[in-house]
Amino acid sequence: MPRDIRLTLIGKPGCHLCDDAREVVQSVVAGFEATDAGSAPVLEEVSILDDAALADRYAEEIPVLLIDGEMHAYWHVDAARLTEALRSR
Known about the structure:
The chain has three helices and four strands, in the order E-H-E-H-E-E-H.
């Protein structure tokens, strides 16, 4: 039975790297949903400004992308690498 793959993009407003990462992730998710009949990626965005624990942990690494709670990338999200990671789940 297919299950959703949980993507969490951690960043903050006004972060140009976060904006770039969001575009890459959204593009990969859209392409993945169009071509894959299995698990579907679901994107959640959270801001380090809203969570002190996230700010303490990731402030110097944003944007951070987690896949099912595990670190996948920080600073830069590579579309090919993300696509491969999603297909392997």
